[in-house]
Amino acid sequence: MAQAGTVDRILDTAEVLFAQKGFAETSLRAITSKAGVNLAAVNYHFGSKEALIQAVFERFLTPFSLALDAKLDEMEASGIPDTPENVLGIVFRLALGTHPEDPQRAAIFFRLSGQAYSQPQSHLREYLHQHYSAVFARLQRHLQQAVPDVPPMELFWRVQFSLGAVIFTLSGMQSLQSISKADFNMDASTADITKRLLPFLVGGIQAEVPDQPLHTGK
Amino acid sequence: MAQAGTVDRILDTAEVLFAQKGFAETSLRAITSKAGVNLAAVNYHFGSKEALIQAVFERFLTPFSLALDAKLDEMEASGIPDTPENVLGIVFRLALGTHPEDPQRAAIFFRLSGQAYSQPQSHLREYLHQHYSAVFARLQRHLQQAVPDVPPMELFWRVQFSLGAVIFTLSGMQSLQSISKADFNMDASTADITKRLLPFLVGGIQAEVPDQPLHTGK
DNA sequence: CTATCAGCCAAACGTATGTTTGAAACGTAT
DNA sequence: ATACGTTTCAAACATACGTTTGGCTGATAG
After folding, report:
1. Which residues, including other chains, have CB under 8 Å from residue A93's CB and lie 6 or more apart?
2. Contacts of B19 in chain A (CB under 8 A)
3. Least CA distance to A212: which residue of chain B?
4. What integer pLDDT is reported at residue A167 of this predicted model?
5. Distance, in angstroms, between B154 CA and closest chain A CA?
6. Most CB within 10 Å of its CB: which of A35, A124, A165, B15?
7. B24 phi and psi, to 5 degrees?
8. Cβ–Cβ under 8 Å, residues B118 and A115
9. pLDDT score at A216
10. Which B residues 86-125 have CB within 7 Å of strand D?
11. Chain B residues with CB inside 8 Å of A167's CB?
12. pLDDT in tens, B31-64
């Protein structure tokens, strides 16, 4: 078994640098030198840079999706009603609270997700879809219960819109904060923005569907 | 003056490849060979790769922001009321209609914007902010008129959320479409998604602000 | 004590990148 | 036709990257 120190130091450093500068812009040399390990360690322990990236995501998403599954179990068992507020609240509290020891970790989580989604080459995207689409579908089913009047197709897109709002905002927070600071002289933490996000998303998800038929291609 | 052919062929090819694969992942050799021009042409006409990227954005955003400014003038002159639907409608119609000769161009526009925003190194972001923050602020002022009950700070974030929903969804449309096709057996064009986006964003922007004070530090 | 083997290390390898160079080709005004 | 400034071109340059190599280290088992 790999000695704990090296592998974890690589993962810790890589996730920070990937979140800060992106995958292509972060070299293995930057990671290893900052982590204080030898350059060859990455290929020795992970096999390749791409495998490193996947490992970083796996360490993030596996605990998250397990916890989300458990919370949804809990919700179903205790009869808490499916409202948009409840379903989205679970997700947000989990995203913010999965690593209570390090509040900045949540920001890294979102920035990494943003990087993954804007990555045009789809290797990583397919990997994520394969490993985590089940929990995602379950989430969407609960939301559908919450807003039965919204057609499933419409809801699918609204979930995508919500994902976009969340990931985009929280992954770009650093720069947005400087803008908001300049214009409003005020800070904003990840938790703050999340609180603002909730009513926005709820309002969007349960908005009335216009009854004029959408032009859906003949 | 530069010969029109070479410069435009480079810009045409670069914007497509940047949108498809990202900035770092697109080499000058890929651009120049696909464009049928010499490798050195990029550095000769633009100076550097980074300048090329900025030139691509300028060609996109300058006409867009000019047209948006004109439309807002028009709106103010003709006394059309500031409602979220009207303001957002103007933006969307413009984004979709600025290049009527090529409907795919709108998709490229959104993909490029997504690339720009997810780019963690802030050179491009600062450039965009410097050149286009004025129109952006004007847009936000109109929205503020539309929803006077939403505090300015709250509205600022809701605009960011909206931007995220738009850019994220439309820039990732290609892959999202394959998902939605698999789950719902249905296509979706940029125009379709835009139609779905509008009620979602309006619902989010004019959602009631929770009166419990936000935990803002302390 | 010695053999073993996973982990570590410095060094090198091959490749791809952005950029620069100097000469050729071109168009245009004299 | 000639001279001149601009544009194009093949080639080379320097650098950075991901990956591989072969030997070294140190703990563990026989």
Report:
1. none
2. 120
3. B195
4. 86
5. 7
6. A165
7. -65, -35
8. yes
9. 47
10. none
11. 164, 168
12. 999 999 999 999 999 999 999 999 999 998 999 9
Q: State residue B174's pLDDT score.
A: 64
B111-144 pLDDT, tens digit each: 888 888 777 666 787 788 888 889 989 999 999 9
**Residue-wise pLDDT tens digits, A153-182:** 999 999 999 999 998 888 776 665 655 666
Q: How far is CA A14 from CA A52, A53, A124, A209, in A?
A: 8, 8, 16, 43
Could you tell me which chain A residue has the CA closest to the CA of B202? A204
Checking each nucleotide's C1' against the CA of B3, the nearest proves to be D7
Cβ contact (<8 Å) for B204 and A21?
Answer: no
Q: Do the beta carbons of residue B153 and residue B195 sit within 8 Å?
A: no
Distance between CA atoms of B30 and B51, rounded to whole angstroms? 17
The pLDDT value recorded for residue B2 is: 36
**pLDDT digits 0-9 by tens, A1-52:** 334 589 999 999 999 999 988 899 999 999 999 999 999 999 999 999 999 9
Q: Which band of pLDDT confidence, cut at 50, 70 and 90, is reported for residue B177? A: low
Q: Whole-model pTM above 0.90?
A: no
Q: How many Å apart are B123 CA and C13 C1'? A: 34
Q: Considering only CA atoms, which of B115, B97, B117 is closest in space to residue B105?
A: B97
A24 vs B20: CB contact, 8 Å cut-off?
Answer: no
Whole-angstrom Cα distance, residue B58 to residue B43? Answer: 17
Cα separation, A195 vs B195, in Å, equals 27
Q: Which residue has the tokens 């909206």?
A: B162
Confirm if A83 and A146 have CB atoms less than 8 A apart.
Answer: yes
List chain B residues with CB under 8 Å of A193.
157
Answer yes or no: is A10 CB < 7 A from strand D: no
> What pLDDT shows up at residue A198?
96
Cα–Cα dist A140/A150, whole Å: 12
- Residues of chain A in contact with residue B157, where contact means CB-CB under 8 angstroms, are 169, 180, 188, 193, 196-197, 200
Footprint of strand C on the protein (CB under 7 A): A 1-3, 5-6, 37-41, 44-45; B 26-30, 39-40, 42-43, 48-50
Q: Is the pLDDT of residue B210 over 90?
A: no
Residue whose structure tokens are 């050195």: B40
The CA distance from B65 to B5, in Å, is: 26
User: Does B173 or A138 have the greater pLDDT score?
Assistant: A138
What is the number of H-type helices and E-type strands within chain A?
Answer: 10, 0
Find the closest chain B residue to A24 by CA distance: B24
